[in-house]
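Lab channel / #folding
Pinned by the channel admin:
"Please post every new chain as: sequence first, then the structure tokens as a reply. Keep commentary short and put observations after the output so the thread stays searchable."

First post following the new format, from NK:
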Amino acid sequence: DDVGHHHGLDSSQYRNAARSVDILLADYLPGWLEEGYQVLVTADHGMNNDRSHNGLLTEEREVPLFVFGEAFSFDPAAKPQQTELCGTICELLGVAHDKTVCRELLK
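Reply from TO:
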């Protein structure tokens, strides 16, 4: 996020920052899954090449979501909204809440 704001999305700095995170996930993810963790990887907002976010453009509003673990349905029809992630995470943790949940994302 910080690198994208400072250098833009088409910069080598941004691509290298993404690669670094990818390497960390590749190192840790197998162990987390072996331990039974449920892993959600997402972002708090999108961004466009002008380094703008939280606007009306698709690239400013849509964010990636990757899920790993046995609690997830992996249903390609699941279309979770970002506003449903808090409730969905609470469901995974068994925490009482009054938030909306993307039931299609979970088994």
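NK: The mean pLDDT is 91.
TO: also worth noting, The helical segments are 2-7, 12-34, 58-61, 85-93.
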